[in-house]
Write a structure and sequence with these properties.
36% of the residues lie in helices and 15% in strands. By secondary structure, it is of the alpha/beta class. It has two domains: 230 residues, Type I PLP-dependent aspartate aminotransferase-like (Major domain) (Aspartate Aminotransferase, domain 2, 3-Layer(aba) Sandwich), CATH 3.40.640; 134 residues, Aspartate Aminotransferase, domain 1. The strands form five sheets. A seven-stranded mixed beta sheet has the order 3-11-10-7-6-4-5, with helices on both faces. A three-stranded antiparallel beta sheet has the order 14-15-16. The chain has a two-stranded antiparallel ribbon with strand order 1-2. Strand 8 and strand 9 form a beta hairpin. It is globular. The two termini are 32 Å apart. It binds pyridoxal-5'-phosphate (PLP). The site of pyridoxal-5'-phosphate has 15 residues, from helix 3 and helix 4.
Length: 384
């Protein structure tokens, strides 16, 4: 995109594109029907999303945070329980654990994959541990097979935070299908986004799906019959209809994300193999995290830079918008002050270095080349 000031590359663009006509028709349909909560659109979307995720059940809820919290509650996890999760994520991952009444315990991340490290998870497991909650961060699946084996060995529930990983697979297995449940967000910026808030829980367990359906609607078994303390967290009909209009595009959008990520990788090839090496205490001027699974869906494209803030300024001066995901490790948030102290040096380091480059299906290859050139020029300058 060009304007009078030269080229600009925005971090994201939430304007409708090829889905605009279908979304307008879907919204019209809902308005004309006059049925706005828990109706045919939510039911149809649940079936369509479950099929897309290769899972037997999907339950539409109000947002991704509630999807996580209701998955935990539905499995009976709450007060007195600990849930092992990642220090590097949207803080909502850990807030959802608190919302369910349980305590988050943080296991440090793997320096390459940026998701919880199996060894750190083993070390974090104690007598109160009830579940593992890995986050498939930036669209790259966590080390699911090893983590699931740990969960099984310790008799723990396995709940995947798939909020950044729609259609991702881990060693060929779709995320959100391996354990007890997967939690998805349809926040507008996610790979599949609504025009407002939305979320879903995926599971192959019919009993769990039925319980979450009840919990999301005030714990009602029948109208006005509240058999347990539920919440109000429903995917409304307008959002469900919008998601139905968009879901058929998700495969193509994911392919576009992967193609653009491939462009970044080949343009930044000299930086590709120089992963952050904590043991040697050498931080390269720029590092591109490796793609450890072809099932990566590139919700974001982060790089790590020794002089991250300078890189962000350098790019901003060239009209390139970037964001930091995430500037503060979750255990260092004030909201976590009452939790067990966490020692997560890798997450601390990553939060100081990480920077997300623009990546969304509306970008052109030319945009990506332009960004990559600006990044490479900076890296060259700082390694000199
Ligand atoms: C977006 C997100 C959430 C929260 O989803 P909401 O729909 O915003 O509640 C949780 N975890 C991760 C990793 C996310 O990216």
């Amino acid at each position: 995109m060009k304007n009078g000031l030269g080229r600009r590359v925005s971090f994201m663009d939430l304007h409708l594109r090829e889905d605009a006509g279908d979304i307008a028709a879907a919204m019209r349909r809902v308005v004309d029907r006059g049925w706005f909560i828990l109706g045919p659109e939510c039911e149809a979307f649940e079936a369509e999303f479950a099929a897309a995720c290769h899972v037997s059940h999907a339950v539409g809820v109000g947002n991704g945070t509630d999807a996580l919290a209701l998955a935990l509650k539905g499995l009976g996890i709450g007060a007195g329980d600990e849930v092992v999760t990642s220090p590097l994520s949207a803080a909502f991952s850990a807030l959802a654990i608190q919302l369910a009444g349980a305590r988050p315990v943080f296991a440090d991340i793997d320096p390459d994959r940026l998701t919880i490290a199996p060894d750190a998870v083993e070390a974090a497991i104690g007598l109160q541990t009830a579940a593992l909650l890995p986050v498939h961060l930036y669209g790259q699946p966590a080390d699911n097979m090893r983590l699931k084996a740990i969960a099984d060995r310790h008799g723990l529930a396995f709940i995947e935070d798939c909020c950044q990983a729609h259609l991702a697979t881990c060693e060929g297995v779709p995320v959100g299908t391996l354990g007890h449940a997967g939690a998805f967000s349809f926040y507008p910026t996610k790979n599949l986004g609504a025009l407002g808030d939305g979320g879903a829980v995926t599971t192959n367990d019919a009993v769990l799906a039925a319980r979450i359906r009840r919990l999301r609607n005030g714990g009602q078994s029948d109208k006005y019959k509240h058999v347990e303390p539920g919440v109000n967290s429903r995917l409304d009909e307008l959002q469900a209809s919008i998601l139905r209009a968009r879901l058929p595009h998700l495969r193509a959008w994911t392919d576009q994300r992967r193609a653009l990520a491939g462009r970044y990788r080949s343009a930044l090839v000299n930086q590709r193999d120089s992963a952050l090496d904590m043991s040697k205490r050498t931080v390269p001027s720029l590092a591109v995290p490796p793609e450890l699974d072809r099932g990566h869906v590139y919700h974001l494209f982060p790089v790590r830079a020794r002089a991250r803030d300078e890189l962000q300024r350098h790019l901003a001066q060239r009209g390139i918008e970037t964001l930091i995901h995430y500037p503060i490790p979750i255990p260092r948030q004030l909201a976590m002050a009452a939790e067990r102290p966490a020692v997560c040096p890798v997450a601390d380091e990553v939060c100081d270095r990480i920077l997300s480059l623009p990546l969304h299906p509306g970008l052109t290859e030319g945009d990506v080349e332009f960004v990559a050139e600006a990044v490479a020029a900076f890296a060259h300058q700082w390694s000199a």
